[in-house]
Write a sequence for this structure.
């Protein structure tokens, strides 16, 4: 899946998980509000990309990959946090 490949290729991928306190708070909010953690992460990524992408200089190749990833997310093609972790462990 392209989205997984994109995230695995990010520099310093070993820092992909937030500190335990932040993750616990995120988990609590999601459980209390009935949010899907994966869905909420996708929502936050889309928001960040929409707000910040214009101020970031990217190559044409990188932009193509970003657009491809955005379209995959919009179609509901994504990986769970657990799948992402497994993919990162395989790369190390």
């Amino acid at each position: 899946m392209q989205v997984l490949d994109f995230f695995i290729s990010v520099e310093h991928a070993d820092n992909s998980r937030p500190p335990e306190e932040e993750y616990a708070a995120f988990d609590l909010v999601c459980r209390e509000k009935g949010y899907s953690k994966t869905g909420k992460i996708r929502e936050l990524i889309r928001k960040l990309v929409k707000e910040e992408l214009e101020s970031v200089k990217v190559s044409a190749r990188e932009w193509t990959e970003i657009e491809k990833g955005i379209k995959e997310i919009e179609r509901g093609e994504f990986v769970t946090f657990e799948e992402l972790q497994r993919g990162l462990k395989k790369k190390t």
In short: Residues 18 and 24 are 9 Å apart (CA to CA). The helical segments are 2-8, 20-33, 37-52, 60-74, 81-91.
